[in-house]
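hi!! sorry for the late reply, been swamped w classes. u asked for the two structures so here they r. pasted raw, havent cleaned anything up. first the sequence of the first protein and right below it the C-alpha cells
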Amino acid sequence: MSMFWRRPQNHPENDAAARDSKVRELREGLGPLSGRSLKFCTDACLRRYLEARNWNVDKAHKMLEETLKWRSTFKPEEIRWHEVALEGETGKVSKANFHDRLGRTVLIMRPGKQNSASPEGNIRHLVYLMENAILNLPEGQEQMSWLIDFNGWSLNTNIPIKTARDIIYILQNHYPERLAIVVLYSPPRIFEAFWKVVKYFVDQKTFQKIKFVYPNNKDSLELMKSFFDTENLPSEFGGKATLTYDHEEFSRLMIQDDIKTAKFWGFDEEKVAVKEPVSLAPPAI
C-alpha cells in the first residue's frame, strides 16, 4: 500500500491559514496594547515582522517588542519637518515626485550632498522621511524603493561607518520588509572599500534587495526598466526626466504632511500647524 501513499501537498490556502494563525499567536503574545502601540501593530505590521523572522513567532515577538520599546523612546511619529529641515537643505535624501511601476513611494538619496557631521541629525532626518514615505504609500502597498545617486560622492562626504551601522540597524530591525529594492547607481570604485565593511551589518534578506546598477550594463538596464518607467526616472538613474530639488517647495509639502501625520496618530493638528518651520530664506541684512 505504501506505493499509493502520497505526500500531502502544500496548498496556498493552507499556508495562508497557517500564517493567519501565527499572526493571531503573535498578537496574543504581545498582550493588551493601547495608544500608539495599538495603532502601530496592525495585522499587516505583524506579518512584516513574522516575514522578517521567517515566520518564527518567538523571534518575531522579540523583534517587535524591541521596536515598540525603540518607538516609545525615539518617538519617530513626533519628529516634525522644522526639526530636520536643516539636514535636508541640500536634498541629500528626498521623496521623489514619481512612483515605481507598482505605485510605491520612491526615496532618492544623494550621499555626495552630505551636509552634516551630526550622527543624530542624519538618523532623525532619515527616520522622518521613512515615516513620511510609509504614510504616503498607496493602499495595499507595504514597501518603497530607494534610488542612490553617487554623483559627487567621496570618502570625504561619506557618513562615518558607525553612523552607517546605526542606520542599517534601525532600518532592518524597526522597518522590516519596508524596502522593495535599493539601487546603488554607478557607485565609484572607491565605494567598494566602504561597502566591504558595511555589508557585514546587512542581513541576508536585505542584502538580496541591494542592487549595484551600472549605466552600460544590459542586466542593469533591464532591472531598472522592470522597476521604473524611464519617462519618470531622472537622467542620474538612466531615465529621461530631470531631477531638481527645491528645498522651499519640498519643505511646504513636508509641513502639509506633518498635519496628516498628526491626524493619523491622533495628535492635536492645530499645535502641529502653528509650529514655526525653520527659516528657509536668508535673514535680511
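now the second protein. again sequence first, C-alpha cells right under
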Amino acid sequence: MASPDVAYASPNDGAPPSQPPPPPSDTIYLKFLASNAEAGSIIGKGGSTISDFQSRSNARIQLSRNYEYFPGTSDRIIMVSGTFDEVLDATELILTKLVNEFYAEDGEEAEPRSKFRLIVPNSSCGGIIGKGGSMIKSLIEDSQANIKISPQDNSLNDRLVTVIGTLQQLVQATNLILSRLSEDLHYIQSMGPAFSYALPYGVPNYGPNGGAKKLQNKKEEISDSVTLGVADEHIGIVVGRSGRNISEISQISGARIKISERGDFIDGTTNRKVTITGSQRAINVAEDMIMQKVASASSPPPPLAPEN
C-alpha cells in the first residue's frame, strides 16, 4: 500500500530555488499510477485501446512493465507526454475509461468517485502546496476534488499527489495541477527516465513505508516463454527504425522480446526466432502486435486508380 497522505507542506516546503533556463521543448509530462487490471484496460486487446488514445490525443502513452512497480506499491507507472492540451486529452480519455470500467455501477444514482494518484518530483510539490497550504486549498476549492500529498521520503525523488472525486472533478484537478507544474521550469528537468525507479517484481522494494516489501501476487510471478517464426524479410518492420517498434511492443505489452541473430533460423525455414517472455497476458498482447506488424508488411499495395 502507498504511504499515508498529508494535505499540506512541512516547514521545509518552500519556494523553489532560482529557475534555470527553460528546456528547449514544449513537451509536458504527467506520471501516475495504475493497478495491473487498470493498465490492462488502458492497453486493450493487442494494444488497441492505447493506440486509439494516442491517435485521438496525439500524446505518447508509456507503461512500466507488468512486473515493475512504483516503490512501496503494487501499481505500475503510466507516463503521458506531449503538449499541454495533448496530455490533458489523453489523460481524460484514460480517466473516463477507468472510471466507467472500474467505478461505475448499474443502478447507482450518485456519480462514482474514484482515486487518481499523480507522481510529482519533490522539488515541484512546494508549488502545488503553496505558502501555508494556500495553493492546495485553492486547487481543492476550484476543482471540488479532495487533493492530498504524501510525506516526503528521502529515499525517493518523488511524492504521490492523490486526487479523489468524480470524473469531472478529477479532470479539473488534473488540469489545474498540470498548469501549476508547467509553470515550474524545474519540473521537466526533474522528470528523469520514465521508469527509473521501477523494480522487478519480487525484488525487495524500499518505498515510502520504510522496510522492504516483497510483493505477493503469485499470479504475476508466473513467467512463460513462446517462440514465433517471423520471415527474415519482415524482421525489419517488427524491429522498426532504431528499434522503435519492438521497444514500443515491449513497453505496451510488458513482455521481453528477443530476436535471433541473422542466419539463426527455425530449422527447415528462413524464419527468424522471436522469443517472447512474460505473463500469459503480456505474451498474448506482444504476439498480437507483432502479427499486426507482419500482416501490414505482407499486405499487397492498393490497386491504382484507372486513368481517365
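hope this helps!! also noticed smth abt the second:
The two ends are 68 Å apart (CA to CA).
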